[in-house]
Design brief:
Blueprint lengths: L8 E4 L20 E7 L2 E8 L4 E5 L12 H5 L4 E5 L17 H14 L5 E6 L1 H12 L4 E7 L6 H7 L15 H10 L8 H14 L2 H11 L13 E6 L11 H4 L5 E5 L6 H4 L1 H14 L5
Parallel strand pairs: 1-9, 4-5, 4-6, 6-7, 7-8, 8-9
Antiparallel strand pairs: 2-3, 3-5
Helix pairs in contact: 2-3
Length: 297
């Protein structure tokens, strides 16, 4: 644990026009390679672009690599950017029920790096992906060269007790008439930019594909004993706080307080879908942090 006391906190201003809805039909990123890789944990789907020092991108529940669709080509200019589908999400094979945990998902991410012959990488995660990334840095510090935790919740005994047994946001009952899809859309809509239909459609596609894990992924996060693990993190760490994300922003300062030497960066106007809501701002923050560490290319 780091010493108590206020930490430096920077704010990244919202660029002009960032508040307007993103383009209704996102263009396919050129030169993005999508493929399957067989690993010890099972078949993993990934999208990758660029060359240089590897940067592994981990998405939130219940998304997929698509959360980083616009981020990949931006990071791919200077790095080997790899966005994987977490096991059980997107097109990646699910882990057995007994292995479906933050620790299991972190182990699967290392298994992917092994299959790609990558001994060491920078790891970037958003929401659930941030918790997985943090566990990776705690479990195998020598393999995580840098860590970016975006909208990372702080999960301690108090939070676990508060949320135990309660419904989660994506917990809906499927109905033959399809009205459960409208219900899910309406639950998520307040956390997305007003009028951005395309962004919500991308969320819905991933949520439907995730099936029971659309809600189950949140429960996995809620069971994680972060307070026992976060003190093990030694990698240089950037903590990103999306200011308009009510789920993660309130606890954002607690994360860097527990990781010695970490940096806290506010992104003004950032919401729950930060990486695909503001891809240029997100990618710029990640790149600036990685460049400051002089990672090899």
């Amino acid at each position: 644990m780091s010493a108590a006391g206020p930490l430096p906190r920077r704010s990244l201003p919202q660029p002009p026009g960032e508040g307007i809805p993103s383009n209704s039909t996102p263009a396919a990123a050129p030169l993005v390679e999508r493929r399957f890789v067989h690993t010890r944990s099972g078949r993993v789907h990934l999208a990758t672009m660029g060359s240089g020092f590897p940067v592994l991108l981990l998405h939130q529940t219940p998304r997929s690599w698509d959360e980083y669709r616009e981020v990949l080509p931006l990071l791919g200019h200077g790095y080997r950017a790899i966005a994987m589908d977490t096991m059980g999400f997107g097109d990646s094979q699910a882990l057995p029920a007994a292995g479906t945990s933050i620790e299991g998902w972190a182990r699967a991410a290392f298994d992917l790096l092994d299959a790609l012959d990558i001994p060491r990488a920078a790891v970037v995660g958003h929401h659930t992906g941030a918790v997985i990334a943090m566990e990776m840095a705690a479990a195998e510090p020598a393999r995580v060269a840098a860590l970016v935790l975006s909208s990372c919740p702080f999960i301690d005994a108090q939070r676990r007790a508060k949320h135990h047994g309660k419904p989660v946001i994506d917990d809906i009952v499927r109905r033959p008439d399809g009205t459960h899809l409208t219900e899910l859309w309406q639950r998520r809509q307040p956390y997305y930019p007003a009028g951005d239909i395309a962004l919500l459609e991308r969320f819905m596609a991933d949520a439907v594909k995730a099936g029971d894990l659309a809600a189950g992924g949140h429960r996995v996060v809620g069971r994680y004993e972060m307070e026992a693990r976060i003190g093990r993190v030694s990698a240089p760490t950037l903590v990103i706080a999306a200011t308009d994300d009510p789920h993660a922003a309130p606890s954002a300062p607690r994360v860097p307080q527990a990781i010695g030497g970490s940096r806290l960066l506010d992104i003004a106007g950032g919401m729950v879908p930060l990486p695909d809501q503001m891809p240029e701002v997100f990618a710029d923050a990640v790149q600036a942090f990685l460049r400051s560490l002089s990672l090899p290319h």
